[in-house]
Amino acid sequence: MKPVIAIVGRPNVGKSTLFNRLTKSRDAIVADFAGLTRDRHYGDGHLGDREFIVIDTGGFEPDSSTGIVKEMAKQTRQAVAEADVVIFVVDVRAGLSAQDHDIANYLRTVGKKVLLAINKAEGMQESPHLAEFYELGMGEPHPISSAHGQGIRSLTEAALEDF
Ligand code: GDP
Ligand code: MG
């Protein structure tokens, strides 16, 4: 079984950009994975010869009956339930938000390995803003730039290290 990595975080932090960066083939092959729904938010990734599955979240189809917040929470819960490891993405340019704290509090309850990815950190490795993310209590943050491909390899290695 390939390890499954879920990408979670509030809207606009760069989850889908990271997903695209991690997945080489856009058409995910998920038929072999019992229990995983066929869904366009699954993709295949690899690090050298190590293969993994990535789940993007937040491709919401806002629905008046549930609303976007509930739909987001549902997608996040489903992805986290299927995942072996979670990448929690935050945005260093926007800074820490109440929604980030809510997601962190939720992730603390699920008993899975969580990696905190500080996205949009291109050229900001020395930024004082990086420090505030320690407040989330999610361990050592991984500065990345999904758009520019920085920090992605070391994040992926950390995600896969137990597999
Ligand atoms: P999602 O809503 O979390 O899936 O976020 P998206 O992947 O759609 O990205 C939201 C916005 O952030 C887009 O305009 C992206 O181009 C931008 N973005 C994503 N990653 C980076 C990054 O590493 N650096 C910068 N500067 N912008 C980024
Ligand atoms: Mg997205």
TrEMBL record:
It comes from the Bacteria. GTP 1 binds at residues 9-16, 56-60, 119-122. Residues 3-163 form the EngA-type G domain. Belongs to the TRAFAC class TrmE-Era-EngA-EngB-Septin-like GTPase superfamily. EngA (Der) GTPase family. GTPase that plays an essential role in the late steps of ribosome biogenesis. Associates with the 50S ribosomal subunit. This is GTPase Der. It comes from Piscinibacter terrae. The lineage of its organism: Bacteria, Pseudomonadati, Pseudomonadota, Betaproteobacteria, Burkholderiales.
